[in-house]
Each structure stands twice: as structure tokens, then as C-alpha cells.
Amino acid sequence: MASFTELVENSNHHPQEKINIETVNNIEITSSSSSAAAPAAPASSSSRYENQKRRDWNTFGQYLRNHRPPLTLSRCSGAHVLEFLRYLDQFGKTKVHTPPFVIQMCPFYGHPNPPAPCPCPLKQAWGSLDALVGRLRAAYEENGGKPETNPFGARAVRLYLREVRDLQSKARGVSYEKKKKRKRPPPPPPPQQQLPLSSPPLSGEPER
């Protein structure tokens, strides 16, 4: 699979600085590099999330700079986000079988565990794209963007993610629906305490 650097060099884009390829969450992401090695990420999940968000944001910024014509963040729209997500498919590692309405239907369409290899394309998994959009949406606003103009929250992006989820769910024979938590049955009521029965009056004793 061609690296991101090779793709940039073989394109008509202007040459950019050296790029490193990192694979995290099934998405190959890029970040500007220097000769020094990057320090290890902290163990906390919050720090890992922030590091990943920063790398994703740098990757998207690099994509905008490589775009012809180059794009500024203020002019970025939901259409450009869709273009970016489709571009990432070339680095995907998830097999998506060809559906039946295509001429060359894959015989393993809908099989979660195909018994043999097939020539179907590799794409980015829906879960990876969904998480990526969430991080970029947060990074956009953290870098001065307004929520009402956030391209990662555009309706077209939400519809695209939903379409990818449904297509991959059917093609791979897996369900992405969240399992509903079973409601715990209510506890049984406490046993009622029975009052002691009053003894019958003795003969000759008047009833009270």
C-alpha cells in the first residue's frame, strides 16, 4: 500500500515538509515531524485522547494545505470533510464486500467470517470514521471555530456516516446497533408481617 508521502509526491500538489505515518484506531494519520522522536503518550485515557485529537487535527490541516487550490479553515465546508473521509479509504484495512446490486457481487456478502479471500476493496471502518469526526469536531471549536459553522457537524457528514454504517453492517454481516441494557427486575416486595390472631374469649367472659 502506498504511503501518504508517496501519494503526495506523485500528485500535483506543492511539495510539503516531511511527513510521518502513524496508524491509530485503524486510520493512518499524518503529522509534521522533526528529527527528534516524539515522547511516549501518557498512560491516562484523557491524555491519549488529546494526543490523538491533536494528531488528527494536524492531519486535516495538512490535507487542506495539500488541496488544490489550498483551502483555509474558514472556507472548509461539509463537502470538504466528505472529500477528506473518502480520501482516507485508500488507507483502510476493513474488507467491505460488494453488494448484490453490483454486477460482480461478492459471494461472501453478509458473511461476518468469510472462509476465503476476495478482491473486495479495503476501506476505513465506520467506527474509526465516526470517532475521527467526533475528535475533529471538538478540535475545530477548540481552535476558534464556531459551533454553528462547524463543518464536521454538517448534516451531509452525519448522513454519510449513517450510510457507511448501514452499508458496512450489511456487507460484513455485523450489527452496529448499541445493545440496550436490560432493565433489572424490581426487587420483590418485603413480606408482610402477619398480626397475631386474638384468642377467642373464654366461656362466660364478655366479649370486649
TrEMBL record:
GO molecular function: DNA binding
InterPro entries for the chain: ALOG (IPR040222), ALOG_dom (IPR006936)
Domain of life: Eukaryota
Keyword Nucleotidyltransferase: no
Annotated spans, Disordered: 32-52, 170-208
Major site of localization recorded for this protein: nucleus
GO cellular component term of the entry, any: nucleus
Domain ALOG: 48-180
Subcellular location: Nucleus
Sequence ranges of Low complexity compositional bias: 32-47
Keywords for this protein: Developmental protein, DNA-binding, Nucleus, Transcription, Transcription regulation
One GO process term, biological-process aspect: mRNA transcription
UniProt-listed Pfam families: ALOG_dom
Family note: Belongs to the plant homeotic and developmental regulators ALOG protein family.
Listed name of the protein: ALOG domain-containing protein
